[in-house]
């Protein structure tokens, strides 16, 4: 029991203990049931209803990580986690997060920690180079990149900038329209609500579940004829349900014609563009105003670390910049620095760039591409097994690492198979609905996943189907 701060000597000792605990967890996570087996309220029942009056020993805290926390987790770092999307971490990312926590930086202004800002500007440019993004997204020109907390925040920033740019041209708020497809992530719907944009159009998709440009063109023309103003279109590279890829070039042309903001959500799949053979996923960004992909999905960097680039930062700054007197400083007023508080909704911001910088320095571009290609190969091999087995159907194309599988026997059989696999605790899968049919999603991309784990997953499908 203690009423004093932890000393540096205690921090050093307990830090070693904590790192050992995390390393042991990662070594043994594949043996744990991927999906938590506790009932609702179980974790709450293990905890006292009142906070402790006296400080407790750190040994007791560590013990309760094992006793209470681990049983209540669904293990996103398990190599047998195939649900939703990867939420990767890695050794250098963990250490980078530790360093950021120890430094305790509040990076709202360049002046509050120059390294926090300038490291971020360099790292986002590094990733832009590896993705071969258009030059106008680089920091040396009118655009540039920023690390947001999530793709949802990136979408909201784009919506706010699109809204205010349209209004600056004389459009009334009630006349603004945002266009999405039936497969666009729900964050765009929520973001439009927050931005108070009243008109949201859902555009038809084609047989591969990608936005249909013909339907988008008609919707935009109809709105213009009715006196409304196209404000923004969201194109997606790798939809959540099936990894569908919208035709960016065609959408960009329509946005250019109507002076609508073109936001590209590549939260999961965009990272694949680092591999030369997959660079096509990001083709067509010439007219894009903003682009987002998440390092915390498939770049071995733990949440939160969402990368956003804009072709012109001015509309973002005009929408989000507020400078009260207590934030004024010589560097900001000189115009020679970037204050990332103006690129996001909240004022405060963490030193997210540090962990991404450590990941990129540890793996190097070649190492990152190697692991991405490993996952791509595992997904292609698994897809070929499903295609060769008449019991299964692939319900959507497989451009990368997400497979949408169903049983030929129908929806109910597919639901039962999904439940049976998840109940084994040896894998965790999620589902989607495509063309009103229930499909099982298999997302390959966890840091620790190897061919052995994919082989084991196939064995579960084969045995339980």
Q: How would you briefly describe this protein structure?
A:
The chain is of the alpha/beta class and 465 residues long. It has 15 helices and eleven strands.
Class per helix and strand makeup: alpha/beta
CATH second-level architecture of the largest domain: 3-Layer(aba) Sandwich
Oligomeric state of this protein: single chain
CATH class descriptor of the largest domain = Alpha Beta
Helical content stands at 40-55%
Count of the separate structural domains:
3
| Overall morphology | globular
Distance between the termini: 55 Å
- CA-based gyration radius: 24 Å
List keywords for this structure.
single chain, 465 residues, alpha/beta, dopa decarboxylase, N-terminal domain, Aspartate Aminotransferase, domain 2, Aspartate Aminotransferase, domain 1, 3 domains, seven-stranded mixed beta sheet, four-stranded antiparallel beta sheet, 15 helices, 11 strands, 13% strand
Structure report:
With 465 residues, the protein is of the alpha/beta class. The chain has three domains: 8-31 and 36-73, dopa decarboxylase, N-terminal domain (Up-down Bundle); 98-358, 3-Layer(aba) Sandwich (Aspartate Aminotransferase, domain 2), CATH 3.40.640; 368-464, Aspartate Aminotransferase, domain 1 (Alpha-Beta Complex). Helices cover 43% and strands 13% of the residues. The chain contains 15 helices and eleven strands. The protein has a seven-stranded mixed β-sheet, sandwiched between helices. A four-stranded antiparallel β-sheet has the order 8-9-11-10. The longest helix is centred in the last third of the chain and has 36 residues, at 353-388. The radius of gyration is 24 Å and the shape is globular. It starts with 7 loop residues before the first helix and ends with a helix. The mean pLDDT is 95.
């Amino acid at each position: 029991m203690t009423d004093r701060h932890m000393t540096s000597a205690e921090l050093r000792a307990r830090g070693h203990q904590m790192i050992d605990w995390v390393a042991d967890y990662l070594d043994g996570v594949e043996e744990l049931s991927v999906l938590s087996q506790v009932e609702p309220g179980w974790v709450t029942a293990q905890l006292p209803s009142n906070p402790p009056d006296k400080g407790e020993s750190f040994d007791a805290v560590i013990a309760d990580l094992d006793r209470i926390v681990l049983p209540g987790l669904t293990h996103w770092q398990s190599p047998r986690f195939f649900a939703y999307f990867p939420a990767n971490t890695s050794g250098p990312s963990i250490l980078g997060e530790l360093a950021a926590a120890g430094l305790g930086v509040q990076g709202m202004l360049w002046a509050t920690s120059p390294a926090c800002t300038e490291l971020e500007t360099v790292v986002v440019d590094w990733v832009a180079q590896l993705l071969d993004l258009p030059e106008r997204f680089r920091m040396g020109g009118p655009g540039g990149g920023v690390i947001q907390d999530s793709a949802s925040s990136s979408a909201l920033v784009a919506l706010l900038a699109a809204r205010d740019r349209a209004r600056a041209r004389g459009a009334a708020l009630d006349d603004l329209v945002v266009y999405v497809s039936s497969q666009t992530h729900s964050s765009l719907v929520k973001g439009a609500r927050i931005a108070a944009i009243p008109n949201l159009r859902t555009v038809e998709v084609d047989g591969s579940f990608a936005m249909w440009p013909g339907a988008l063109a008609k919707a935009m023309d109809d709105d213009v004829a009715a006196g409304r103003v196209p404000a923004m279109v969201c194109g997606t590279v790798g939809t959540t349900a099936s990894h569908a890829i919208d035709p960016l070039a065609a959408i960009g042309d329509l946005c250019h014609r109507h002076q609508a903001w073109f936001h590209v959500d590549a939260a999961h799949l965009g990272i694949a563009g680092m591999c030369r053979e997959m660079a096509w996923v990001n083709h067509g960004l010439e007219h894009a105003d903003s682009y987002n992909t998440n390092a915390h999905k498939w770049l071995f960097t733990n949440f939160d670390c969402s990368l956003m680039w804009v072709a012109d930062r001015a509309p973002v700054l005009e929408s989000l910049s507020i400078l009260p007197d207590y934030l004024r400083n010589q560097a900001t007023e000189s115009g020679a620095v970037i204050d990332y508080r103006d690129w996001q909704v909240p004022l405060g911001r963490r030193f997210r760039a540090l962990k991404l910088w450590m990941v990129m320095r540890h793996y190097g571009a070649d190492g990152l591409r190697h692991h991405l290609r490993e996952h791509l190969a595992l997904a292609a091999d698994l897809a070929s097994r499903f295609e060769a087995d008449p019991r299964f159907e692939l319900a959507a194309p497989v451009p990368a690492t997400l497979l949408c599988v169903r049983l030929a026997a129908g929806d109910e059989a597919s639901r039962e198979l999904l439940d049976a696999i998840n109940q084994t605790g040896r894998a965790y899968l999620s589902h989607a609905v495509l063309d009103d049919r229930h499909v099982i999603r298999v997302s390959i991309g966890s840091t620790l996943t190897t061919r052995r784990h994919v082989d084991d997953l196939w064995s579960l499908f084969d045995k339980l189907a």
